[in-house]
Each structure stands twice: as structure tokens, then as C-alpha cells.
Amino acid sequence: MQGKKQYQEKLFNQFQLSVRVPEHNFYRRLKGVLNLDFLYKETKGYYGSSGQKSIDPVVFFKLCLVGYLENIM
User: How far, CA to CA in Å, does 73 sit from each of 4, 9, 36, 59?
Assistant: First the structure.
């Protein structure tokens, strides 16, 4: 089953990560120009219809992309 992550900012001791990240940050700018919603349609055939939901394909792609860009994979 294909999962889909619903992002909701959580507060912990009055700390919000989105407030701390500068507006000109590379990944913020990348998010503004890169629409990855097409991945849901493209990967739908690779997911089963029963069992536990798997990782969101967009989240997985972003993890791989950050690993590549930061040279950690």
C-alpha cells in the first residue's frame, strides 16, 4: 500500500524548525520549483493493495536526493 505523508508542524518547547530555516535556504528554494506529485502516479503500480502502508514515495525520493546532493550516499 502506498503511503502519503501529511505534514503538520509540531511545537516542542516553543521551537519551530520552519521559523529557524532562512528564506533563501537551498532546499526551501528547491521545494518552490520542484513539484514531485507526479511520483504518486508513476509509482502506484509498484505498491500492493494489502498490508501496511509503506513510506511516501515523495519522501523517499527527497531522502535519496538530499543524500546525493550532500554526498552522503
Answer: 24, 28, 21, 16
pTM: 0.72
Query: 6: closest CA among 58, 69, 49, 41?
Result: 58
pLDDT at 38 over 90: yes
Helical (H) or strand (E) element with 32: helix 26-33
Bridge partners (DSSP) listed for residue 15: 12
3-state secondary structure of 15: strand
DSSP secondary structure letter of residue 12 = B
pLDDT digits 0-9 by tens, 23-36: 999 999 999 999 99
Q: Which residues of 22-39 are buried (b: 16+ CB within 10 A; e: fewer)?
A: eeeeeeeeeeeeeeeeeb
